[in-house]
Amino acid sequence: MSVIATYQLTKVFPGGVRAVDGVDFEVNAGEIFGFLGPNGAGKTTTSKMVNTLIQPTSGTALISGFDIRKDPGEVRSRIGYVGQDVGVDEYATGRENLTLYGRFYRLGGKTIKQRVNELFELVDLIGYEDKMVSTYSGGMRKRLDIAMGLIHQPDVIFLDEPTVGLDPQTRVHVWDYIRDLAKVMGVTIFLTTHYMEEADHLADRIAIIDRGKIMAIGTPAELKQSISGDAVTLSPGAGKANESQDFISRAEAALSGQAFVIRTQVMDGGLAVYVEHGESAVPEIMRLLSSHGIEVGTISVSRPSLDDVFLKYTGRTIRAEEGTPTTYAEVQRKRSRRQ
Question: What are the phi and psi torsion angles at 317 (to 5°)?
Answer without folding.
Answer: -110, 160
